[in-house]
Give the backbone structure.
Amino acid sequence: VPAPTSCPCCGSLKLSKLGEDVTETLEVIPRSWKVIQTVREKFTCRACEAITQPPAPFHVTPRGFVGPNLLATILFEKFGQHQPLNRQSERYAREGIDLAVSTLADQVGAATVALKPLHELIARHVMVAQRLHADDTTVPILAKGKTDTGRI
């Protein structure tokens, strides 16, 4: 807010700063989408006619187009927020981005393949312990004609 240049009471220009009050407002900024283009120039050697080009940026899916932030968002919404892929696809469509459920599923599958080495490292680390502690919380499992008890 611009500071006053004169006293609103008497009109004097002799103002000195006494302090300030800060007002904080929490606001949400809608998600923005970007298409990031990476230009990779090709060169040919005039001596041996070899063609050279820098490597393409890494994507979890070979020849894919989904960036790491979008992939992390898809995975977090699916597994962290329990948001099914069809609802994610519908929301992206409302935001102007057409991502089919099958495309999202392909990305989840590619991420599981890419994260498998990390999963194996964690599993090895956990299995070297002398004891494993587990939550013995029971949950009802609905089966045809009856309900079984399952454990998490």
Remarks:
- The chain has a mean pLDDT of 91.
- The beta strands are 43-44, 51-52, 138-143, 146-151.
- The helical segments are 68-80, 85-94, 101-127.
